[in-house]
Amino acid sequence: LQAVKKYKPRRHLPPKKITVDQVGLEKLLEVASSPLDKFIVIFLSQTGLRVTEAASLELKDIDLDRRVLIVRLAKWGKSRRVGLTQEAVAAIEDYLAIRPKSVDTHLFLNRQGKPIDRYGFRIRLEKVGRLAGVAVSPHALRRAFVTLNANKGRPLVMLQMACGHSDIATTRSYCLTSEDEAIQAMQTW
Predict the structure, then answer these.
(1) Active-site residue among 27, 99, 124, 142?
(2) 142 and 149 Cβ atoms separated by less than 8 Å
(3) Against a cut of 0.85, is the pTM above it?
């Protein structure tokens, strides 16, 4: 009889989570050649929206005077309101000035006046990321929103609400503060 080898299952490794730090964001904005690409980087990193939420936004969902946007098609059919930073408002105003004229009411339009879908966002960001030498995706900018704001001392509960997470543990898992960032913060305590 031949001995049977014991089965050892392969260890499953979760995909590596990526985020973009402040320096990476600045590099992305430097090389973003089109106003739309620059707007996408600023918008996703300043609002923390999921890419499908951003792709479904319509002009009526934005109130620049009150600096608020309404996410109508959020995950699980929920909706929420999100505050806009002054930088995000300025980026929206700059983009609206050059936005293609179209009967379509979506916020994000390509040159032909058609809505940009989630894959369009990904492709545009990957192109900008290659030029900047920064690993980036729409979700990396969502994580950057949480990480950068958590590092600035923003309450995790507020970040949870902004991101539309039902569990604060999910928001916490988005915070990818590096050890060096923690050491620098501790040195000022």
Answers:
(1) 142
(2) no
(3) yes
Catalytic residue among 27, 38, 99, 165: 165
Residue 16 pLDDT > 90, yes or no? no
Asked if 174 is an active-site residue, the reply is yes
139 is catalytic: yes
> pLDDT, tens digit, for every residue of 47-98?
999 999 999 999 999 999 999 999 988 887 889 999 999 999 999 999 999 9
Would residue 142 show up in a list of annotated catalytic residues for this protein?
yes
List 72, 118, 122, 139, catalytic entry: 139
Dihedral of CA atoms 11, 142, 146, 170 in degrees, nearest 10, equals -50
Is residue 165 part of the annotated active site? The answer reads yes
Number of neighbours of residue 113 by Cβ within 10 angstroms: 13
Residue of 27, 38, 50, 99 marked catalytic: 50
Catalytic residue (choose from 72, 75, 122, 127)? 75
